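Hey,
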Amino acid sequence: MATRESEGAVVAEKAEEAEASSSAILTVPNVISVVRLLCMPLFVYLLFGRHERALAAYLLAVLGATDFVDGYIARHFGQVSDLGKILDPTADRLLLIIGVGSIAIDRAAPFWIIGLAVFREVAVAIAALVIAAKGARRMDVRWFGKAGTFGLLVAFPLFLGAKANVSWEDQAQFFGYVTAIPGLIFGYIAAALYIPDSRKAIAEGRAAGAAIEGLTQ
């Protein structure tokens, strides 16, 4: 009886924490993530509608930099929320996919870098859907994954700037490789680390579901 009551208290406590966290919707990091999503069509318009590679590169760089800004605000000002934990990586992934896809069409970056980046993102997205369907709890993003994404979000504006006939195009090309290669390495390390993480998340998700089901009977 004591065990069941303690399990019930833990489940109730976690439910209350989740409810309190999910109620924090209008936070500064979440607003920044939404603005990033809304600016993606503007990036595409600048690149293909106005053919302004330089402006598109600057905008993409600013949007990539905000990934660090919203994370810093969330951690240091107590504005971490369940919505933010979903919204931020979603904005990162969409920004990377749209940015990489647009740059691939524009042929502004090496195709082997684009191919490895796209393959990793598609594989991670499919894996996330599969483990979620199996009842896994939500997994926190690893540092390697954030570092890899940030590296690529820095690299692709540099590659785009190198094709924009700007005064710093040679430096942009060089630093594009300097940031892209570590970004890819960190990204694939994170993907490998997510394999044991996903197994643990599935097991814990099923155990939590079984515990809740047992308490309701």
